[in-house]
Write a structure and sequence with these properties.
The protein is of the alpha+beta class. The protein has two domains: about 200 residues, Endonuclease Chain A (Endonuclease, Chain A, 2-Layer Sandwich); about 160 residues, Endonuclease Chain A (Endonuclease, Chain A, 2-Layer Sandwich). The chain contains 13 helices and 18 strands. A ten-stranded mixed β-sheet has the order 1-2-3-4-10-9-8-5-6-7, sandwiched between helices. Strands 11-12-18-17-16-13-14-15 form an eight-stranded mixed β-sheet, with helices on both faces. The relative contact order is 0.15.
């Protein structure tokens, strides 16, 4: 049963997500699927399985299942590299790539406000993956109203999968567009955070094998109207780290600064360094600043909210040292006195505002074309001090190249600010 929320007076202006966002503006896996559905997304393909994977005799089946919970999504491969990287498109609704233990996805909003066109997106990819789950499904959701995901999760609960969810009280339990009652009625066990700060995570753990995370809320707006990213990691280490965070919230009711600081959250997966942090208990900003301070060639960023002055100062310092610094701010809120747009732009950095029709919801830094920093963590004091958030840092030039491709797509639409006054 869901716990009763106690924050009915909480201001919706705290939201950094899609509720306000709709207002403006040769690889065996894809060959096997015939370029139609990545229904085995939960297992990240049959190439490059992580060294920590369960033995073949105990691993979950990777047979292709075409679930009835969501329409088939057209997936078209675009390229394969010598390193095993495969890129693909998700119909007209997104882009993606996979290599070894990871898969990455980006939404591609058309700009349409016609909901009849909101089909064939990332929600259907994840719904297909949920259709393969046989044992457990744990979800941390800031917002929840995707029809495809709601149906997939409800179906999973009905077929005997243990479904548990941690949600934000106001933005899921109390939101007028929420579909959370459908999954509760199907047998999912749902708890909320019962506090004024945000449970701002967006991650899922499928069969204790794969974790999905990123900036993407599980909503219609964030799938079809806003620019977002999602990363799927098939890694025992990653699963264990996210599972500990989920259990802390679900079983112990510990959120934000009340949470216990994590341990052993840095590891190497198939030769790739991975770091995972959670706010507010971990020093997320310290890890962010340390990584940015190590830049020697370039820093690119895409930011829904960027108000942390100390992080902005790192960018100014690296630019002064000759590092190329370019960035895109979500337009809404970027011209307030709290935003780092003005100091960065007025210092001569190529800092721009999003030119897309809806909302740039990324929280991404790309360092030296090889390090990706992303997750749910907005670069703000609320994310640092109060919310429940996650951020990952992965060093992989192939993954970084996918985020750079997304940056370039967004930068092509971005515009230089016209209304700023530099003293």
């Amino acid at each position: 049963m869901a716990r009763k929320s106690s924050s009915s007076t909480r201001s919706s202006s705290r939201s950094s997500s899609s509720r306000s966002s709709g207002r403006r503006k040769p690889n065996p896996l894809l060959t096997l699927l015939g370029a139609i559905v990545i229904a085995v997304t939960a297992y990240c393909g049959t190439n490059g399985l992580d060294l920590d994977s369960p033995p073949a005799t105990t691993a979950p089946s990777t047979r292709v299942v075409t679930p009835t919970t969501a329409p088939a999504t057209t997936v078209a491969p675009t390229a394969v590299t010598s390193s095993g990287l495969q890129t693909f498109t998700i119909g007209t609704q997104g882009f993606g790539a996979q290599k070894g233990f990871w898969q990455v996805f980006f939404t591609n909003p058309s700009g349409s406000s016609d909901r009849s066109t909101y089909r064939g997106g990332l929600d259907e990819i994840l719904a297909a993956a949920i259709g393969t789950v046989t044992r457990t499904l744990d979800i941390a959701a800031f917002e929840w109203n995707s029809p495809a995901l709601t149906t997939a999760v409800a179906d999973a609960a009905r077929r005997g999968v243990r479904v548990r969810m941690v949600v934000d009280d106001e933005h899921t339990m109390q939101d007028t567009d929420t579909t959370i009652q459908t999954v509760i009625s199907a047998g999912a066990n749902v708890v909320d955070d019962e506090r004024s700060a945000l449970m701002h995570n967006k991650f899922m753990i499928l069969d204790s094998t794969t974790v999905w995370t990123g900036s993407w809320n599980y909503t219609v707006n964030d799938t079809y109207r806003n620019n977002n990213n999602a990363l799927a990691l098939r890694s025992r280490n990653a699963v264990a780290i996210y599972q500990a965070e989920f259990d802390e919230m679900f079983a112990n009711g510990s959120f934000g600064p009340r949470s216990t600081r994590g341990a052993n959250q840095t590891f190497t997966q198939d030769g790739t360094p991975v770091q995972i942090y959670f706010a507010a208990e971990d020093d997320v900003v310290g890890a962010l600043r340390t990584t940015l301070s190590g830049a020697t060639r370039s820093i690119r960023f895409m930011s829904f909210s960027f108000t942390l002055e100390d992080v902005g100062q790192v960018l100014l310092d690296r630019a002064a040292a000759g590092v190329s610094v370019t960035g895109i701010f979500e337009t809404t809120g970027s011209e307030t006195r709290f935003s780092e747009l003005t100091p960065l732009f007025c210092a001569g950095l190529d800092a721009r505002q999003d030119g897309g029709p809806f909302v740039l919801h990324h929280k991404v830094f790309i360092v030296d074309e090889r390090i990706v920093i992303a997750g749910s963590f907005n670069f703000s004091a609320g994310a640092r001090d109060s919310n429940d958030e996650n951020m990952f840092i992965i060093t992989d030039p192939d993954l970084a190249a996918q985020y750079i491709a997304e940056f370039n797509r967004r930068f092509a639409q971005a515009r230089r600010p016209l209304n700023l006054t530099c003293s």
